[in-house]
């Protein structure tokens, strides 16, 4: 049976889209373009039961950071992709180790379709046609990458140089003429990028690939046996954990970091292959792709793919623009007004506001670096923090007290836990709460409350069919999220995992 195995790489942090994208809630998990998140859009565009080539498509493998596991699982559930295959990385080691783990996890040597989780592609029919071409080439042991047809010089992308045309009349009829992979070029300056685009021989590097799992592992053994060995040890020492496959942390931490491009693809260009015996070499192939692609790498890119009004503005949320042109304005919690501005990015969240010149949007990452140096939480999480059972949001905090709004999904429950340094008061705002406090179990309805003394085992559950919303008032000498001792947990979290 012909099989395509989608592999979605979801390890990025998206620092250039701060303050919406944060380390523990990165851009691929956000609905930046429409109602679906970028991860969900990626899943929906590549997961179909059968494509035009006649190949069946497996359930996607998602490789993601351990900290994002419950968010990823919930987003798959929301788009009806069940029995998901989610591989957890304890630390980031770039794309080559991530793909190697997915290849080891795959069964029956499928053709791997490798895609980042945080890109936008508007023309799905063109993409599917290119994938069909890539599939046929990958079956012949080619290493296939997709090069984006550039429409203007761009200095924020790497480039692929194409070589001689390959293939037969079938490829020509489909409009997907493949080329030999001649070389990779790092991000150029503007004059060089202009020259590349004018020549017609260069494509943007998309970070999308196709190859058989066995082909990838063979090439890794040839070029990066150190990475392959570390990944094999991490995979073989791993274990199934709920919906996840958790690789061995110690082994994977020792794995070198490298990208798919550097580890293998650059060694399969026509320039590199000419240095070895060609009959023993695996050749790289590039398939041009002109399908409305964007890596949404900065606010300026999001402005480009957004729905612009007559003045060239992209406005989201409670926003009013007057005498404003070519700007991106996004409001999350408050009303935002723009008057007499042009070429600006304005993004408002509960705990941070960004105002930037659109032409310098890439430099937002410098702010994130400063936040990291200052050890500030604004780079890590939003005020609303998501958990497998729901979410919580800080409302107000002071000396020896803080107030939170907690939402528990229907049928979900927090862990059975205890705190050494704080007591808690719970007030039910909406729904029904099942509360365990010591040996007592009670049901609370709207406008009812309870008190959890310091040092008492307790648990909060939602036995109802609507979300449970409570206000929690904490008081005590220490209110940090690490003051928690878990006794039972439905989600397999350890004592060291974060709050609730």
In short:
The chain is an alpha/beta fold. The chain contains 13 helices and 31 strands. The protein has 3 domains: 3-294, Spore Coat Polysaccharide Biosynthesis Protein SpsA, Chain A (Alpha-Beta Complex), CATH 3.90.550; 299-373, no CATH class; 384-488, Sandwich (Jelly Rolls).
What would you say this structure looks like, in words?
- The structure is a single chain.
- Helices cover about 25% and strands about 30% of the residues.
- With about 500 residues, it is of the alpha/beta class.
- It has three domains: about 5-295, Alpha-Beta Complex (Spore Coat Polysaccharide Biosynthesis Protein SpsA, Chain A); about 300-375, no CATH class; about 385-490, Jelly Rolls, CATH 2.60.120.
- The protein has a six-stranded antiparallel beta sheet, with no helix packed on it. A five-stranded mixed barrel has the order 7-10-8-9-13. The chain has a four-stranded mixed beta sheet with strand order 15-17-19-20, with helices on one face.
- A hairpin with a 2-residue loop joins strand 11 and strand 12.
- Helix 3 (about 95-105) packs across helix 8 (about 225-235).
- The longest helix is centred in the first third of the chain and has 16 residues, at about 125-140.
- The mean pLDDT is about 90.
């Amino acid at each position: 049976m012909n099989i395509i195995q989608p592999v979605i790489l979801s390890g990025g942090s998206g620092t250039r889209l701060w303050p919406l994208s944060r380390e523990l809630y990165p851009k691929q998990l956000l609905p930046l373009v429409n109602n679906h998140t970028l991860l969900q859009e990626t899943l929906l565009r590549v997961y179909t039961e059968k494509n035009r080539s006649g190949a069946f498509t497996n359930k996607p493998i998602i490789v993601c950071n351990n900290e994002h596991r419950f968010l990823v699982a919930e987003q798959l559930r929301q788009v009806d992709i069940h029995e998901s295959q989610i591989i957890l990385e304890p630390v980031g080691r770039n794309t080559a180790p991530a793909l190697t783990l997915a290849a080891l996890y795959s069964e029956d040597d499928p053709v791997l379709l490798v895609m980042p989780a945080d890109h936008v592609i508007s023309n799905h029919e063109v993409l599917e046609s290119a994938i069909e071409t890539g599939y046929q080439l990958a079956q012949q042991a080619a290493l296939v990458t997709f090069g984006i047809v550039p429409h203007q010089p761009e200095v924020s992308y790497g480039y692929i140089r194409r070589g001689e045309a390959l293939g037969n009349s079938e490829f020509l009829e489909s409009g997907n003429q493949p080329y030999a992979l001649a070389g990779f070029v790092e991000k150029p300056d503007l004059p060089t990028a202009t020259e590349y685009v004018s020549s017609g021989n260069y494509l943007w590097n998309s970070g999308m690939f196709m190859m058989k799992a066995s082909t990838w592992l063979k090439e890794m053994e040839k070029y990066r046996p150190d990475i392959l060995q570390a990944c094999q040890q991490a995979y073989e020492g791993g274990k199934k954990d709920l919906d996840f496959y958790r690789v061995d942390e110690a082994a994977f931490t020792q794995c070198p970091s490298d990208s798919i491009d550097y580890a293998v693809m650059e060694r399969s260009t026509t320039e590199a292959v000419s240095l070895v015996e060609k009959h023993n070499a695996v050749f790289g192939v590039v398939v041009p792709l002109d399908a409305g692609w964007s890596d949404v790498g900065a606010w300026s890119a999001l402005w480009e793919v957004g729905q612009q009004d007559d003045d060239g503005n992209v406005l989201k949320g409670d926003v009013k623009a007057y005498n404003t042109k070519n700007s991106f304005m996004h409001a999350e919690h408050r009303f935002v007004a723009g008057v007499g501005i042009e070429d600006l990015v304005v993004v408002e969240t509960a705990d941070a506001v960004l105002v930037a010149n659109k032409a310098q949007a890439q430099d937002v990452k410098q702010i994130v670096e400063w936040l990291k140096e200052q050890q500030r939480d604004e780079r890590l999480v939003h005020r609303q923090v998501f958990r497998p059972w729901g979410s919580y949001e800080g409302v107000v905090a002071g000396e020896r007290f803080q107030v939170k709004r907690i939402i528990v999904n229907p049928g979900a429950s927090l862990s059975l836990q205890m705190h050494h340094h704080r007591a808690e008061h719970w007030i039910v705002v909406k729904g029904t709460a099942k509360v365990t406090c010591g040996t007592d179990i009670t049901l609370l309805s709207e406008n009812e409350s309870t008190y959890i003394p310091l040092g008492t085992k307790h648990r909060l559950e939602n036995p109802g069919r609507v979300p449970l919303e409570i206000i929690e008032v904490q008081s005590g000498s220490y209110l940090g999220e690490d003051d928690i001792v878990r006794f039972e947990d439905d989600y397999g979290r350890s004592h060291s995992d974060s709050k609730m």
